[in-house]
Amino acid sequence: MRVLVVDDHDEVLTLVERALVRDGHTVLTAPSAESALEVLEHGPVEIVVLDLGLPGASGEELCRTLRQRGDLPAILILTAENAVASRVRCLDAGADDYLGKPFAVAELRARVRALARRARVARPSLYRKGAIELDFGARRAFVAGREAPITTREWAILEVLAAENGRVVPRRDLLDRIWKDNDPAAAASLEVLIGRIRKKLGVDVVRTVRGEGYALADD
Question: Does 126-216 carry CATH code 1.10.10.10?
Answer without folding.
Answer: yes
